[in-house]
Amino acid sequence: MSLQDFISEALSPWTKKAGPDSDIVLSSRIRLARNLEEYKFPLLASMEESYAVSKHIGEALTQQEFQEVGPLELVRMDELKTNEKRVLVEKHLISPHLADQSKYGAVLLDKEEAVSIMVNEEDHLRIQCLWPGFQLEKGLQTANAIDDWIEGLLTYAFDEKRGYLTSCPTNVGTGLRASVMMHLPALAMTQQLNRILPAINQLGLVVRGIYGEGSEALGNLFQISNQITLGKSEEDIVEDLRGVVLQLIQQERAARNMLLDHSRLQLEDRVSRSYGILCHSRLIESKEATQRLSDVRLGIDLGLIQGLSATILNELMILTQPGFLQQYAGDVLSSNQRDERRATLIRERMKLEQEKHD
Questions:
Q1: Which of 26, 97, 206, 344 is paired with 136 by a 20 to 30 Å CA distance?
Q2: CA distance 134 to 143
Q3: Where does the Phosphagen kinase C-terminal domain start and stop, copy by copy (predicted)?
Q4: Exposed, middle or buried, 53 (CB in 10 Å: 0-12/13-18/19+)?
Q5: Annotated binding site
């Protein structure tokens, strides 16, 4: 695949597949942090050392193919335009840190875009595996298989007592970050999140926005992940997160049923208003668009809106971000121009969806 293939489509191929509990858990992610034994870690490395790491890893992982994943395409950050990097961030294929601050950073991607191996981010390697719906165990199996394959080609920095050595102390040990992206509109509407989120933090988990650390929780989308990697096995980390996510799924379903039972008319009005605004607006800001899309997705999941695919939230959440809007326009857009183009794109996409189901 070429770079253009990765940045031209909003939805990665893996997101079009069904997954368990996908009405609430949009995706599951497993990320492993690894460093090479013979090189300085990225935060201390010189430009020459960073280039040597990127070259070494790129050659090792593209010359041999891992059968379960297929060939990996190497994309170097210094060969990308600013907006192309932004698009890859919006698709969750690279981190903002890799896009903006990495020395000789790169990413290796499979054709499904379910596997993303970042090079020279905070660590030499960040192995990321994505699955639709609530599938943490499958994600861990895939990530471990890829990790074993890479360890057969490269020598990791590892300590018998501490485990895998990483740039950030919170990643030392397993180097594992397990996370899920959850859509929790009913808990937000019933104001239960103000009580639930602090309790989650006390359990050693962290709640972030749609693009991870430092990002805002747009469209009632929350990324929930483990915070501690040292002293726990990979299986224990995943199981702890799984238990909390199962409780959140149960609470979100209960909140949705409560809204239907006690505030159905108000809920239908809110969903219908958001649907109408998305179908007819001429200008819409990013924050409002994501909130309206969240309302519509809730309406689809509860059967209040017919003839729309549930994946429309995933698609338009990405398509309406600044990077994608400018990529399609082929030009840098002002804020007002982006608002106009965002509204036009949503209207046209809604119309196509309606025509498809007529």
A1: 97
A2: 16
A3: 24-255
A4: buried
A5: 27-31, 92, 126, 177-181, 208-213
DSSP string across 207-230: EEBTTBTT---GGGEEEEEE---T
What type of residue sits at position 28?
S
Residue 214: the pLDDT is 47
CA distances to 33, 72, 147 from 128, rounded to whole Å, are 9, 13, 10
C-alpha 89/C-alpha 99 separation (Å) is: 7
Residue that the structure tokens 């399609």 belong to = 328
Binding site feature residues for ATP: 27-31, 92, 126, 177-181, 208-213
Cβ-contact 33, 175 below 8 angstroms: yes
Render pLDDT for 103-143 as a digit per residue (tens, 0 to 9).
789 999 999 999 999 999 999 999 999 999 999 999 999 99
**Hey, is 91 helix, strand or coil?**
coil
Place of tokens 């980390």: 237
Q: Average model confidence (pLDDT) for the chain?
A: 89
On whether the pTM is more than 0.85, the answer is yes
Determine which of 12-16, 161-165, 174-178 has the lowest per-residue pLDDT on average: 12-16
Q: Are strands 115-119 and 125-132 parallel, antiparallel or unpaired?
A: antiparallel
Give φ, ψ of 197 to 5 degrees.
Answer: -60, -45
Q: Which residues contact 336 (CB under 8 A, 6 or more apart)?
A: 283
Write out the DSSP string of 273-320.
HHHHHHHH-S---HHHHHHHHHHHHHHHHTTSS-S--TTHHHHHHHHT
- CA 312 to CA 293: how far, in whole Å? 8
Contact criterion met (CB below 8 Å) for 113 and 17: no
